[in-house]
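Notebook entry, structure prediction.
Reason for the run: the old model in the group folder had no record of what sequence produced it. Starting over properly, with the input documented here first.
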Amino acid sequence: MCAPQDLGAGGVGGPPRRQRHIFSKRDRGHRSHETGIVMVTMGSIKRYVATIVMVFCSALCIGAADARDPSHWSAVWATALVHSPVPVSGVRPSVQTAPRLHDQTLRQMVVLSAGGSRIRIRLSNAFGTRPLHIDAASVGVQRVGNKNGQLDASSLHALHFDGRSHVVLLPGAARYSDPVDLPVREGDTLGISLYVTGTVAASTWHPDARWNNLISTQGNHTMAAIMPVAVTTGATMWLSAVDVQADTQPPVLVALGDSITNGFRSTVGAAHSYPQMLARRLHGMKPICRVAVVDVGIDGNEMSDRDGGYGPGQGMERRFKRDVLGQSGARFVLLLGGVNDIGEPAIALHAQGKTLDDMTARRIVANVIEAQQEIINQAHAAGLRIFGATILPFEGTQGAYSAAGERARQQVNDWIRHRAPFDGVVDFDKVMRDPSHPLRLRPDIDSGDHIHPNDEGYATMAAAVPPSLLGCKS
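New structure, fully documented this time:
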């Protein structure tokens, strides 16, 4: 069996580590101290031949693994991870910290955007400062009609890493599991269970999974179809992607953005972010548009953090390589961001009794455009097609909206529509704004905070993405 790729401390996207096979003195035969001539015995010849065969087979395995990765794997679920704790900032009055596990099992639920016959998961210790020990892991398909993390027992598989049931991730490292033969379909919900002994505080997490993930009572419950639950958490920890192999490998659209991409204020546990709803729409088309969609949005995230930034995680420009180029089978990018670059400084100033001025707004516009241009350059250099999305209106959002900020939004949107070298544009602003009050969201798709859509609003966004951008017939 071929070993999976170890991404090492270089993180996702780096070249795979190739095994080095070292001959022992025993396999080289015995060297005469007097003459320096190697005295080869029949046993050593057999061992030598066996070793050559092993090296040859290993080389074939490694070559096959490289050929499948990443071109023959496709990410069908992913999330963007940040460091824990998330510190206090001008827009965040308190620290956000990932849950601690105490000899417990964490079951995390993910909805797949495409199917396949084999799967693998990717774990990450990207922001860890010490090795992460995962003592057991499993994957299974949630029972049809169940929303409580109960899995179909016949689908449960223990996960292995280089054939071992446990894995250690060094600080900064990411690691794929060994492939598992598990047929899955678009829309299937997987339960991925991780067991840790002792007390572990996650330093690599996604704070807003839009799902109630499960933390067990004490013990290893990775192979339990129905896990005893002590508490739920809205966070994802360490899990960064799920990949599939299929007869027809789907290309992947990576949706890069902020809370609007992440689906903030959508129904928890319903998979109603716009990327998830877009995946369902594409697979419901006739003929099917066989494109997987993964969501790497982060609540509060900015396009650029050149001036320090307020939101959690690195800005989109800085995390592009890890969160987009690091996805197996990535072919397309849909970029939506900039509202936090505009609104978060306004919130911080509002708390001080000040308002955003035009000079600051002009610097924000320059930073956002420069960051988008750099993202476009990186995407094109990697052979990806990238589409830009206009910033949604947000008048009425307490503290975030300002007249100078609105002018900044209009300037960025004008650049996206008319001058940015995107491969296509999705005009979310046009379809989401209120025709009678275009600086605001339509009332029927406003979640109530005047910046985030409701479920219907996210469906409207999904419907606004032309399938032709992805090479599919409308």
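Summary: The mean pLDDT is 88.
The old model has been moved to the deprecated folder.
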